[in-house]
Design goal:
The complex is a heterotrimer of chains A (99), B (652) and C (187). In chain A, 79% of the residues lie in helices and 0% in strands. With 99 residues, chain A is mainly alpha-helical. Chain A has a single domain (3-91), classed as Helix Hairpins. The longest helix of chain A has 31 residues, at 56-86. Chain A is elongated and about 50 Å long. Chain B is 70% helix and 3% strand. Chain B is built from 25 helices and two strands. Chain B has helices at 2-20, 29-56, 83-106, 113-132, 136-154, 185-214, 219-225, 231-248, 256-260, 266-275, 280-287, 289-292, 296-317, 323-344, 347-374, 392-406, 412-426, 430-455, 478-493, 498-505, 522-547, 556-560, 562-568, 573-619, 627-651, and strands at 60-70, 73-81. In chain B, helix 2 packs parallel to helix 4, helix 8 (231-248) packs antiparallel against helix 11 and helix 17 packs antiparallel against helix 18. The N and C termini of chain B lie far apart (80 Å). Chain C is mainly α. Chain C is built from seven helices and no strands. In chain C, helix 1 (2-23) packs antiparallel against helix 2 and helix 2 packs antiparallel against helix 3 (51-75). The chains are: A mainly alpha (99), B mainly alpha (652), C mainly alpha (187). At the B-C interface, helix 25 of B face helix 4 of C.
Chain lengths: 99, 652, 187
């Protein structure tokens, strides 16, 4: 297996996540798609780290996991507050900051 | 000595600024007095300078300030009082002082009294800059300044309405028989300014050519080097400078404005259109004589044009009834004389005629002003008559001036005019001599026609207060007559100083001998004098005899002839200019405005504004606040960045 | 050989799971398939000899994060009523297609950096966990501590977001007042 294969795989998963981000109107589904994107990047980092014999990529991946976790926590907290206010988690209701 | 130079130059400016402070106030007589005093000061300074220069033969040259010093352009504000310019200075200040004093009396019922004096003094200041400057750029500043002040003064009564252009010869503003000198003062002022401006373009081209080839505009530098230039180039320079002179001195085809400028107040005509501004063209030729002597063929062309103008104007004065226009045509004719002299190389003769002409023509205008003031601004000479017993002093002065104009010995006109005829004869330009000789006769005739119509003969106005042509003529104020007297005395006596004049000016200007005009033998000389005097005398006698009888002077049949109509309508020149130049130009302007300006330029400018506006409107859709849309825009940005990265990578 | 099969198998599975996450209408299905996808991703990590990372992925991501999402889903009772209508599906697919194309072009090109030097080289003699620990607590200590602070901040944030009626501070009140407060609640 060469590095390119892992990278292409990572790209495909990233693109799938991107489609989800662009397509989903339900806020929770939006978060799921964001998780997918983050994981795709993790794969790429780990692959590069292995094929160059460097640990830097894995460290980066660790920190990404840590940050992703806290981001989920806060995101969900905000989402719950929003739901209590508006009783809907449709993305199109999130439009009060118009220009 | 420099003090006198600066006094002569700046005293009129002080007067102009002083009077300008009271521009909107009602008439204050001490404004006129102060201005006249300041001009009197300038006159005294100029006279002192003239005696100094005559006595010592040196000239006074000052450099006041540096004006333009950029790269190899070095134009200072420099002033010189040398033999030529001091003659002009004396003439200008003398006539202006007398005109100022006369205006105190003439304009005493006018609302714009203070404004008038401000403009008049400003005009004198510009004229002084013109004659005293020591480089062509200063000359041009003065040139434009007198053009501007002339516009201000001709259009002094700018609120007068435009007259209709009828085809009735007795009422149309394009004929010399109507009571209007032009369509309106505003129109006449614009006409004068625009015609002058068009001619100034020629002069500017001449100045540019001089500067481009010689590198400086100082007189001494230019004249020293002009001999070394290519002959065709000097011809071009001479022609362009002459075009500028043509505009100011109203030579054909730029002559239309002079007769129409009579719409302005009479003192303005006396000062500007007799003595000073119109002579600026002659001054330019005299000053630049070293350029013109290199190209005598241009000089010959100038002389021919001058002769043509002389007879062209004199013929139009024969039938005119507008008093000021008669005198204006006579000015135009005498300017033609001066140009003939200058063209043939007799520069000091032209200058001499300029000086004497200034004296008697200005006093003629001032006298006409007196008559108009007395006859309630009536301008048609056929409605006057028999004024001699009511205005004896004015009659005497105007008669003296007319005799001087006709060129009768021993008055001033004889010496200067005869010299010109003699110069023409001795240059073997016999046709020119003949034309000028005939014109002399015509001049004498129409001058005395004017005098006879106005002062003698039957009274064509009524003493009865109820009639519509009631007049109450009275002599003007004594101080006005006192102001006109020195000019009349000079009109008589200026010719007697010919020898001193020649001695002074030929230090700078070429003598007749150097110009190739040899002194005639005694027999020829006396024959010429006799023939000329006969012609002038004959003109006077014919006029006096013809117009002295009561009743109608000419049959009505004469009024129907083609020649009469041609002359009365000024050879249909105004009509020609109106239809060939004015109307197409107006159409072109309208087209440019509507099609080019409104449709093209405005659309482009408005279009740019609209593009900005619509872009903003469309881009507003990006800011809906919808997260989904924002994410889509973000993805688009990522696409663009990636594309750039790939492209940049490939390029490397 | 073994590696190739494993790679393609897990790749296929991962892509399938994530596709379900993205395209299904049922939220529960999406959640479950996401969790499954995470597990399969950890398989990749094991393939790449990043053992520690793989285990961390399972514990943190699949365990903690998915649990969080599951709890969060319990709050929303009307999730099935959200209609998924998109204004222009074409735009979405075009955009993502172009990104995919560009990135694949970038990655399919010959890899630059052939002579990249490893900052923290792998020591295959001790296992991956030891290796990671060594680097993490010596070279990456500061980011580690900062991450810890960030987690603390996230925790506080989460408490505040979820907490209700926190205007009374028990710390600064006397004993009797606290009892009064508690007594109020009991009644």
């Amino acid at each position: 297996m060469i590095l390119n294969d892992y990278l292409i795989l990572s790209t495909i998963i990233f693109v799938i996540g991107l489609i989800g981000v662009l397509r989903r109107k339900n806020l929770i589904m939006l978060f799921f798609a964001t998780e997918i994107m983050l994981n795709a990047v993790n794969i790429a980092l780990a692959a590069i780290s292995k094929f160059h014999g460097d640990l830097t990529g894995q460290m980066f991946a660790f920190f990404i996991i840590a940050i992703a976790a806290s981001e989920v926590a806060i995101g969900l907290g905000l989402l719950i507050l929003w739901f209590k206010r508006r009783n809907s988690i449709d993305l199109d209701t999130l439009q009060s900051m118009e220009g | 000595m420099e003090g006198f130079l600066y006094t002569a130059l700046f005293a009129p400016l002080v007067g102009a600024l002083f009077a300008a402070m009271f521009g909107n106030s009602p008439r204050k007589i001490w404004v006129g007095v102060v201005n006249s005093t300041l001009l009197g000061l300038a006159m005294v300074a100029s006279l002192i300078l003239m005696f100094h220069i005559f006595g010592t033969g040196t000239n006074v040259h000052v450099k006041m300030l540096d004006w333009i010093v950029i790269g190899n352009v070095d134009i200072p504000f420099g002033f010189v009082a040398d033999q030529v310019s001091v003659v002009m200075m004396v003439v200008v200040t003398l006539v202006s002082t007398m005109v100022h004093i006369h205006s105190i009396g003439y304009m005493d019922h006018d609302k714009g009294f203070n404004r008038f004096f401000s403009y008049l003094s400003a005009f004198v200041f510009s004229m002084m800059i013109l004659v005293m400057s020591d480089n062509f750029a200063g000359l041009f500043i003065g040139w434009e300044g007198v053009g501007l002040c002339s516009w201000l003064l001709i259009g002094f009564w700018y609120h007068k309405e435009d007259q209709e252009k009828t085809s009735d010869m007795y009422n149309s503003p394009f004929s010399t028989l109507s009571p209007h000198s032009s369509i309106s003062p505003g129109y006449a002022a614009n006409e004068a300014f625009i015609i002058n401006r068009v001619a100034d373009l020629g002069m500017l081209v001449g100045l540019f050519l001089i500067f481009w080839n010689i590198g400086s505009l100082q007189y001494d530098v230019v004249f020293a080097q002009v001999g070394g230039l290519d002959h065709g180039l000097v011809v071009a320079i001479a022609i362009f400078l002459f075009i500028g002179a043509m505009g100011k001195s109203a030579q054909f085809p730029f002559n239309q404005w002079l007769a129409n400028a009579m719409e302005g107040p009479t003192p303005v005509s006396a000062l500007i259109h007799a003595a000073t501004m119109v002579t600026a063209g002659v001054y330019l030729l005299v000053r630049a004589n070293e350029i013109f002597t290199v190209v005598p063929e241009v000089g010959y062309f100038i002389a021919c044009l001058g002769a043509f103008v002389a007879i062209f104007a004199a013929s139009q004065a024969l039938v005119a009834t507008n008093m000021k226009k008669i005198i204006a045509f006579s000015t135009l004719s005498q300017l033609g004389y001066m140009f003939v002299a200058a063209g043939l190389g007799a520069y000091w003769v032209a200058l001499f005629h300029l000086a004497t002409h200034a004296f008697f023509k200005s006093v003629l205008f001032l006298g006409a002003g007196n008559v108009m003031h007395a006859m309630n601004d009536q301008i048609n000479i056929k409605k006057m008559g028999g004024l001699k017993k009511y205005m004896p002093h004015t009659a005497l002065i105007m008669t003296i001036a007319s005799v001087a104009l006709a060129g009768i010995f021993p008055l001033a006109g004889f010496f200067s005019k005869d010299l010109i005829l003699e110069a023409a004869f001795q240059s073997h330009a016999y046709i020119l001599w003949f034309i000028l000789w005939v014109t002399a006769g015509l001049t004498a005739f129409y001058s005395f026609r004017l005098v006879m119509y106005v002062f003698h003969g039957e009274e064509n106005w009524s003493h009865n207060k109820e009639d519509e042509n009631y007049q109450h003529p009275h002599e003007t104020y004594p101080f006005v007559i006192a102001a006109m007297t020195p000019l009349a005395i000079l009109a008589i006596s200026a010719g007697w100083f010919k020898a001193e004049f020649v001695e002074m000016t030929t230090k700078m200007l070429p003598t007749l001998h150097e110009a190739g005009i040899h002194h005639p033998s005694s027999a020829v000389f006396w024959t010429l004098v006799a023939v000329t005097t006969l012609m002038a005398g004959g003109g006077i006698a014919y006029a006096v005899l013809k117009f002295n009888k009561k009743g109608s002077y000419h049959s009505d049949k004469m009024k129907e002839t083609f020649v009469y109509k041609l002359l009365a309508n000024q050879y249909y020149m105004p009509h020609l200019i109106e239809n060939v130049i004015n109307k197409p130009y107006l159409a072109m302007s309208k087209f440019s405005w509507k099609e080019v300006d409104l449709k093209v330029i405005d659309t482009i400018v408005d279009g740019i504004a609209k593009i900005v506006y619509t872009t903003g409107e469309e881009s507003r859709a990006m800011q809906t606040g919808n997260l989904s849309k924002a994410l889509k825009w973000m993805t688009l940005g990522v696409v663009i960045l990636l594309a750039v990265a790939v492209a940049a990578g490939n390029l490397k | 050989m073994f590696e190739v099969i494993a790679f393609y198998l897990f790749a296929f599975l991962t892509i399938a799971m994530f596709s379900i996450t993205v395209f299904t209408k049922n939220a529960l299905y999406a959640l479950s398939s996401l969790a499954a996808g995470m597990i399969f991703i950890s398989a990749f990590f094991f393939l790449l000899e990043a053992d520690f990372l793989g285990v961390v992925q399972i514990i943190v991501y699949t365990g903690a994060v998915m649990a969080l999402y599951a709890f969060g889903m319990m709050f929303f009772d009307s999730i099935n009523d959200v209609t998924e209508k998109i204004s222009s599906p074409k735009v979405v697919f075009v955009l993502t297609g172009m990104i995919a194309l560009l990135v694949v072009v970038m990655f399919a090109a010959p890899i630059i950096g052939e002579n990249a030097q490893a900052f923290y080289p792998v020591h295959p003699e001790y296992g991956n966990a030891q290796d990671v620990g060594l680097v993490l607590f010596t070279k990456y200590l500061i980011p580690f501590e900062v991450a810890a602070v960030m987690l603390l901040v996230a925790m506080i944030g989460g408490i505040i977001l979820a907490g209700k009626k926190m205007d009374i501070s028990y710390t600064e009140m006397e004993e009797q007042d606290i009892d009064k407060e508690i007594g109020k609640d009991i009644k």
